[in-house]
Amino acid sequence: MSTLHGSAHRRAVAVVAAAGALALVVGCGGSDESVTGGGKKDGKVTITMGMYGVMGFEETGLLEQYEKENPDVDIQAEVAGDEQTYYTALQTRLAGGKGLKDIQGIEIGRAKEIVDTRADTFADFADVADTDHFLPWKQSQITTEDGKVLGLGTDIGPMAVCYRKDYFEQAGLPTDREEVAKLWEGDWTKYVEAGRTFKKNFKGDDVAYMDAASGLFNAMVYGYPEQYYNAEGELIHDSNPAVKEAWNLAADAAEDGLSAKLRQFQPGWDPGLANGTFATAVCPAWMLAHISEKAGEANKGKWDIAKAPKGANWGGSFFGVIEKSPVKEEAKKLVAWLTAPEQQAHIFKELGAVPSSQQALELPEVKNLTSEYFDDAPIGQIFGEAAQEIPDGQVLGRKDGTIKDTISQGLTLIEQQGTARDEAWETTVERIEKAVG
């Protein structure tokens, strides 16, 4: 679990793991009188927020800063340990019409479902001033066909490959980040081939080349404009060549024993980082904070970052405001401030989450940023360039997040149970069809 910084004001902050988050669905954050839990009393405005993982707003002190600059505002943030648990609870609250927060985080994989099914529940940001600084494709992902803007973007997820320099040296592979990038330049197949070399030559304790085959799958599939749905909104997960290509290469890696069999953000992955049980992880920019925290000081400087074979966007989030919030306008003002270029640049500097603001991407403090933890890697340059390589017009689908999670589980069948890839694929397709109707 992440350690959250306190506030000068009294703040209710719940950091919850899988079981705890679901218990909160009924027992916290709302009443029969209030849809959300925020409100106004005695000249004081209380704004509640629902977030997940390490989004950076609490951890970098931005919420506390806003409270200091606006002494009549008290922000109460509830943070779930992982997004899947968070979204399950959010869906229940949306269905029940209460227990919501005034501000709710929305992960990119859920954005289309929110746009298609919950547009009336969320407030419109189209009338908020000074919000034209975002990457155009970012805001289009949270905008309805009739132009209602259901939220503002936080970060995006351009990708790189995080790798252990000490392990690469033991395997006779280059350790310089530019030379490492050349190992797999332009082709994820080369990344897997480097893994075979690593496995053959590594001298030392049992260390896997990569954390999980599902990480490789996601990196590949998000490099294409279409993944699980086409532009007409039709499911294509079982016919899209990009999905099958990514599945087969990820299955190759799993069958060749290149994976530590540790799904990212699932039990075992954090100890794997701390104990150094794998040498590489496909890492969207937002993952850097988690890796540095969980790998810990003992591994500082051992990790480095190299350019990914191809550009892709994996992840990123938005903040939406509930339409029936009693502090709707105050919450919209807070969201606009949190997602402004200066605040996005601050979070990138502190945690490595790449801004979705084009203006922020052009700031010197973003372009020139390095990461001390990752051996002074020029993350501003690496992820800034990767952001420009993200394919335009990426198609989002209503159940993207569900399909991604189900495919990750399918690859785990190959990794952990030795299931044949074709059988695992058939099982995965059946599960998807059941989950998405």
From TrEMBL:
InterPro entries: Bact_solute-bd_prot1, SBP. SUPFAM superfamilies: Periplasmic binding protein-like II. It comes from the Bacteria. Pfam families: SBP_bac_8. This is Sugar-binding protein.
